[in-house]
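Dear Dr. H.,

I hope your travels went smoothly. While you were away I took the liberty of generating a structure for the chain from your last submission, since the lab meeting agenda had it listed for discussion. I wanted you to have the full record in hand beforehand rather than looking at slides cold. The sequence, exactly as received, is reproduced here:
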Amino acid sequence: MQILVSLHDVTPAHLPRLDHAERVLAGAGVTRVAYLLVPDYHRRHPITNNAAFGAWCARPRPFEVDWVLHGHEHLEDAASARVPGDPVTWFKRTLLTGGEGEFLTLPAPDQRARVTWGVAATESIGIATTSFVAPAWLFNDALLPTLAATGFRYTEDHWRVIDVAAGRSRPCPVITWATRTRARRLASLVVCPLLLQRWRRVPAIRIAVHPHDFDHPRTVASITRVLEAALSVRQCAGHADLFG
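The corresponding predicted structure, in token form, is as follows:
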């Protein structure tokens, strides 16, 4: 039984929250974490040639870190947001994220440009990765060919981890907390433990946390309990481990 633990939105904008997250993850006994790195968070926090942030990324941690490229800006641009969408796209844009589905409606050439920029930015601070996760796990049909063409191996959606190069996927549902509103926070305190119980026989699951989760003590307590319960019966893993 496997568990993939991930810390999303790793950016200079969230360093105090990320430090808090690291303490919680280590305290829960996590031995491996995917860090989802955003190269220019909300177009205001670039990592390119940021030596101080590079040093933060390189510092020792009590668990193994797998680096993952997480979009480029983590923000849907205005032109893409104005593109008329079908009801499913509207639902995803409106209810599954707060305007941060960067790759949801982005055309293929723009996707390739942002992925390429992201690779250059991460390499500028000494990080290399073969995994990419779109912000909010939202993307269109252009993403998988884009990742294959730019040398990425793995990606995720809400339900699966995908081996892009091999053209196969493995079920791996995700548990994540929502903290954008009080109602979402309260709902997550109920839903996340229930999902852990519901998926107790699923061979591989993911638990994903976000920096803003750590602004709320009750959410932090819930994350800790769910992680400890999951780790009592599962081993930490990375993308490649799911495919042997």
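Two observations you may find useful: The CA atoms of residues 110 and 186 lie 37 Å apart. The two ends are 13 Å apart (CA to CA).

With kind regards,
E. W.
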